[in-house]
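Q: What structure does this chain adopt?
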Amino acid sequence: MKQHPDVSVIGGGIIGLTCAYLLAKEGFAVEVLDRGELGQEASWAGAGIIPPGNSSHAATPLDRLRAIGSEQFPTLSNELRELTGIDNGYLRCGGIEFLDAGDREALNLWANEGIVFERLTLSTLRDCEPSIGDAPAEAFLLPDCAQVRNPRHLKALIAACKRLGVRLSPHTPVTDFRADEVGRVLIAAGAWSQVLLARSGGIPVQPVRGQIVLLRTPTPLISRVLMFGKHYLVPRSDGRLLVGSTEEPEAQFEKANTPRAVAELTAFATRLVPALSSAEWERCWSGIRPGTTDGLPLIGPVPGMDNIYVATGHFRAGVQLSIGTAQVITELFTGRSTCVPLTAFAVNRKPAHVVKAAFRS
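A:
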């Protein structure tokens, strides 16, 4: 790499690393700087759910970003495996979403986007997943739902970036910078992004803690991702099961687990799958997600700072939005038309209401 990179990415999570990878493929000299180890914050802590999508019919810019990720994750996963030898655990396992009356508008979004789904009766639900107990709401099968193993995917991204010559600098905190002394800077530091832009007025990103519990059974009890509101169960092929997640803005940047949250998640799991009451409790962890008022990420230039850009505020959806976000940033930096209108994700937009997406994430 030349002495001064074309792009400095601040933040080595899934958004920053995916952007760095795609930019390096385009021939940019890229460096990634992170205050700690690469990929060890919210990206590592997530469950890796990848909802289905059809980018040609997605109703909103956010849904289009999600659909791009759904469509391209298999290709990216194969590409990373061929380049690095690392299998990120991508699996089209299918999913079941439980929707109560207040969330039924999602069905119209799915239908209009061309997403395959099927309403399940209690009988067909038990045929799909015999271990399920009482259904918390009406169930819908999503055969194209997928998952990825976050730690493995991050490991593959890091290795791929190295192979492409990206300069990786973990344990390199950036507290300030002068815009006239650097090339392009992409701030992708998650919930910590606001600190880096405090001098310029800041950006509307808030930390929201999420907690996850990991259970283990001798053999898998379910094969599909199960989702209800903010909670989910994600089965792994080795009998491990992720149970998530909480949303705790009041915790700020305190990364810790609480007895109350662990009990809440465990109770949800055992109500949905009663046999989990005898599962081995393996561990729990938490992550600090970057939330925004209207539920949309911030992607694009920072007003008044010509060479400073952001890609943050992805809240619970960093994995599923990572490829679409990186594609948009790469298109922006290469002067091509962007696949989604960036006005929807502008830093200085005026949020009117929370955007209803096809999937909660």
